[in-house]
## 1
Amino acid sequence: MQRRFTLRALTAAVALAALGAPALAADTIKVGVLHSLSGTMAISETVLKDTVLMAIDEINAKGGVLGKQLEPVVVDPASNWPLFAEKTKQLLTQDKVAVIFGCWTSVSRKSVLPVVEELNGLLFYPVQYEGEELSRNVFYTGAAPNQQAIPAVEYLMSKEGGGARRFVLLGTDYVYPRTTNKILRAFLKSKGVAEADIMEEYTPFGHADYQTIIAKVKKFASEGKKTAVISTINGDSNVPFYKELGNAGLKAKDVPVVAFSVGEEDLRGVDTKPLVGHLAAWNYFMSVKNPTNTEFTKKWAAYAKSKNIAGHKDKPLTNDPMEATYIGVHMWAQAVEKAKSTDTDKVIAAMAGQTFKGPSGFTATMDMKNHHLHKPVFIGEVKADGQFNVVWKTPGPVKAKPWSPYIEGNDKKKDEPDGKSKL
């Protein structure tokens, strides 16, 4: 009799499944981690994978989300831009993740974008970028140009920043540097900087020989007005770039370099003594003093030691994209709790206005409309130990402007994602 009941129940269950009845809820909520763990971008991205895992461990230790543990699914797109799209499709269709935390370069994000939009997935992108994009399926926890690039150049032009009047726009050859430099060119011209006083150079990913370019920079800087270099070099090319900068004796007092993609982690393998005084613009530095950051850096040090993370177990470092990643994971978890669901549309709605006290010392707020964080801006000088001394900061968080006012036609674009991304 028991056997007949079991068979009957089984038959009914199969019939319900065939009619599209919902399956039993999984015991865990799967979370995708999409960062390059090999190739030219591994120097920057590997630590972001570890930051996601640390945040997941924290959340799980407090009971998880909706009473379930988070289960990370880590993949390696290997600094291969088309592979980012393939791995995203795998995470969403095979692994059934509720959200993806990942990407560094804009070319990797743009590879992922049509996939998350088509499959209605969710991507949290943690790195500064060029703007000129809004997607309902992406939350941008890094800086838009008005939260990093524009303030940095304004600082260089100011009296306290050295009063630069000639500029070298030096970047890796892909969308983020080229679009950022397009914005900066228009901004500089609006400030009266002549075309002849702007030099623009690009190198491929993985470029290692900067002798010729540094020689050109020195010559350009010798032709008159105070010159500054704005660097959007990305990935492991930063190591030979800064080494050559030191070899050439280009000191900050003569030709300051401000970088948008170099933080504490990227300077780990570089002799920073010749680089003292050169600059970076971010929304967080490890050296900022506040109780939230003290707790964050201690947590990271303990986690890195417990997980035997290469480099960090002996010399734990934190940086801006790590902070943006950490904020993103916690905000997503808060939004899921608020929505009482991992459903993409419900989580997107619940993300509006989410807040989280970040290690920067400021409360990060997700804009009610444009999927970007309101963030403070810091400019720091490289110190001999590879840390940064903050020399300038905004009085509070700055609202992101994804559409730069220095690009023609942007005044007509809506500051709110609507359906497919507007590129």
## 2
Amino acid sequence: MQVRRLSITAGSKELVDIGFTIEHSLALVGQSGSGKSLTLKTLLGMLPAGLDAVLECDAPFALKAGKTVALVPQNPFTALSPLTKIKDQFFVGRERVSELFALVGLDAALIERFPPELSGGQLQRVVIAMALSSEPKLLLLDEPTTALDPHTRGVIIALMKRLQEELGFLMLFVTHDMHSAERLCSEICVIKEGRLVESGPMDGVMAEPASDYTRTLIEANFSNREFRI
């Protein structure tokens, strides 16, 4: 899937102007305010009022939110209604929910629970199951591990890698966390203030970053290199 150009403007001000290719799993990395979330919203067709977008894309499927494109949000605690049982927050039948729960490693009995009764890791698995319920061709991840502790973060990253291998969807992972990006994705694009800084295979960019900005992001995440995995 190639995004030849994704441009977002607010009046005469250009906020984002980038292009990228998702061959397997792409990490879109940058500091807060770099345009990562706006990029996701453009792919979902959900830009806020007052913003305009140009999207030139070559893909073997039409981009339809909730069908071919699905989102795993940043915070599972706010993505679900706390007063509604898990089973009533899915738009598929109970049998399909049970299948999805098995896929993400959850006990099917949890569908009778309310979200506050589940742990953060369990809730993140629930929203992943929801995203997969439409069998998407493209899965967008909006920093889905930032609200989790380090151990649970690693478990969720391993789960996403396995799910992609089993189901074959394309994945775009938006994050400022170079550590998680390196563990999850095979490709990387680094953006700053809405512009592409550099891109390429994950291993190559991490080993020999071409820009000072990328090098700064790496050093900020790996100031103590013995913790790299």
## 3
Amino acid sequence: MAFNDDSFIREVNEELRSDQLRFVWRRFGRFIIGGAVLIVLGTAAYSGYHYWSGRQAGSSGDQFIAALTLADQNKTDDALAALATIEKSGSGSYPLLARMRAATLQAQKGDTAGAIAAFSAIGKETSVPTVIRDAARLRAAYLLVDTGTYDQVAAEAQELAVPANAFRHSARDVLGLAAYKAGDFAKARQWFQAIVDDPQSPRNVGNRAQMLLDLITASGKAPVAKG
């Protein structure tokens, strides 16, 4: 199955803010790494190649699961070392998954700057599937809400906040949060209102946007424009 599978995008969109991408990778790993292994009818050499590549992917998968287990056990340094090995010598899409997971672990460890740099780098690589690039940019943007400026958040997320983008809900959310934190309540209202007005916004994102809109209105710092 392709990387832009609609169900994958929908689930990632809803889980980005909870900072639990690990569960998404586990749940949708088989989609991300390309789906079921193709059964090839042909020459023995061709079949042998696919057998070999399948074994390589299986080995990388085992290593990836082992790294996740180390992370679950709070053995962060060991998990990062295991993920680094997969990044260097893994097969299929596991090196990319390892990079994403390692960046999340960096953030959990307190290396926010390193995590932002890692996610941002993935988001700029044209060889990476668009859905993963966008997810990485959003992860960088959410981390920047606490540590950066609105402009830095916008540099990662604003291009994703357009109607045609599957991640527009999360992009508008992070831009609204960044504007709110920066004290630009008028801009925050615009982003949160865009979420509320979009009938496809996930319920959790829409509810948070409405709550923040109510807070902004109650504060009187960004009154509703009268038309």
## 4
Amino acid sequence: MRPAGVLFDCDGVIVDSEGAAIAIMQDEARAHGIEMSADEIRRRFVGGTIQSTHAELRRLGMPLDGDWVDRFYERLYASLAAGTALIDGIEDLLDSLDAAGIPYAIGSNGRMTKMEITLGQHPALMARFGDRIFSGQDMGCPKPDPALWLHCAGALGLPPESCAVIDDSPSGVLGAVRAGIPVFGFAEHDDGAALADLGARVFHRMGDLRALWGL
């Protein structure tokens, strides 16, 4: 069924930014004698906030101080500013949504500063979203709080249930389910079973959505 509006996550859905964060987390863990694979980091941390990551790493035994979050952001922003590509197929999907008259918005757990760095490297794409770019962290309602997705739907002037969420993380999927919004789980790196278990319809390439929605 074709949605009336589409609500996108940002990292790992629009911009290919998660690899930089994963590499820095691996470095941090290795510095404390812990080896973590990219898949393990993706499973444990992707979709959360850096604050929640800090708490989890401390729980794992890493003696991280209170300034760790700020230092992590400094490293991450520098890495992302050096070059952040778009997810393959996202521009074609937006073209199809525009042609069908379907509006869209972004709801991310990343800070607005981060999105200005990543999306800002692609000004034509960023301009397509206009003022419909929202940070759950800045708003005080990070996923899985459903309030972020509900706010995005409201910004489009649409009932939540008429929209579709696209997210690649368990927290984003859970937030959409709690908001009563159909959710499509983008599984670029695995079979997406964890997303499916939470209620997402899994897909693996952006072009899949164009076929599913008849665009």
